[in-house]
Design a protein that fits this description.
By secondary structure, the protein is α+β, with helices and mostly antiparallel strands. Among the domains are: about 100 residues, Ku70, Chain: A, Domain 2; about 40 residues, no CATH class. It is built from six helices and 13 strands. The strands form four sheets. It has a seven-stranded mixed barrel with strand order 1-2-8-11-10-9-7. A two-stranded antiparallel sheet has the order 3-4. A two-stranded antiparallel ribbon has the order 5-6. It starts with 5 loop residues before the first strand and ends with a helix.
């Protein structure tokens, strides 16, 4: 069973359903550690107090709100828990709306909603009613030190929940879209529609992959084996000056294979100069460590 992010009750009307939330997705990426360039030691980020001029343990940390420059109001966990709203334990559906009325721009993180013991019957009643009606629920829930507005949506096998941004959190974009109302010719519009139809396909998310992460894995594997990676040059892009010509050429090339382009990275042996430099570096490192250790021994003897 996946770890629960939140547990509590989902209510609509006088019906209460015990539920739990678990993340529906997570970002997967290769991460690099920060190393000291001189000795290649992994760097740490300790908590440091400039007033006491020393490192600080986690047990010594408290929360403060800066109301003026360098002036703080201090808060305990008990004080923060005391002001938790009802939505910290109960998620009440405030209203039902049509899903196409909600701009996806408001969506943030996604969760699976599963019933807890004693809640299965009411859970499936709500799921079926929402599936048949075409409505989704709007509710509020408190987690991760803030109260979210959420949308509860029926899926094929159960309910899903998406946290949403508040209206004041959506940034206005003064230059969003084109403010230059250029005239579109009817023939250009028709060709653009043909191009869309030529590239139309059912959405299959499994067709798409993070080619940058795949490239990183290839690079890491190659470097571990003392090899190098050769990448093709990027295609230089430029705005289409002649829209008609670009549309006709695009249609003339025919339909491209479904999915994205495959990575064209090639693993090759390192050049003699680079390999020699690597070998020398490998030889030098133990010598440097031995010299450092020898220096420490002499220092102790002198002391």
């Amino acid at each position: 069973m996946a770890a629960s992010t939140w547990k509590g009750f989902l209510t609509f009307g006088l019906i209460s359903i015990p539920i739990r939330l678990s993340p529906a997705a997570r970002t997967e990426r290769i991460s690099f550690n920060q190393l000291h360039k001189v000795c290649h030691t992994r760097l740490k980020q300790p908590l440091f107090c400039p007033t006491c001029n020393r490192m600080v343990e986690r047990s010594e940390v408290e929360k403060g709100y800066e109301y003026e420059k360098d002036q703080y109001l201090l808060f305990t966990e008990e004080e923060l828990d005391k002001i938790e709203p009802e939505s910290a334990h109960t998620m009440e559906i405030l209203e039902f709306v049509k899903v196409d009325e909600v701009d996806p721009l408001y969506f943030d993180a996604s969760y699976y909603v599963a019933p807890e013991e004693g809640g299965a019957r009411a859970y499936h009643l709500l799921l079926e009613a929402m599936q048949r009606s075409g409505y989704v629920g709007i509710a509020k829930v408190t987690m991760h030190s803030r109260e979210y507005i959420v949308i509860i949506r029926p899926a094929k096998n159960g309910l899903t929940l998406h946290t949403m941004f508040y209206a004041n959190e959506i940034r206005s974009a003064a230059e969003f879209g084109s403010t230059d109302k250029t005239e579109i010719k009817e023939q250009e519009r028709a060709l653009a529609m043909q191009l869309i139809q030529a590239l139309a396909a059912p959405f299959q998310p499994e067709k798409y992959h993070d080619t940058y992460q795949e490239g990183l894995r290839t690079l890491i594997a190659a470097k571990a084996e003392g090899q190098d990676v050769v990448a093709p040059p990027h295609i230089a892009q430029a705005p289409a000056v002649d829209l008609m010509a670009a549309l006709k050429k695009s249609l003339g090339e025919g339909r491209k294979p479904a999915g994205e382009k495959k990575s064209l990275l090639r693993v090759v042996p390192k050049t003699g100069k680079e390999q020699s430099g690597k070998d020398q570096s490998s030889k030098d490192q133990p010598a440097q460590r031995q010299q450092s250790a020898s220096g420490k021994k002499q220092s102790r003897k002198a002391g």
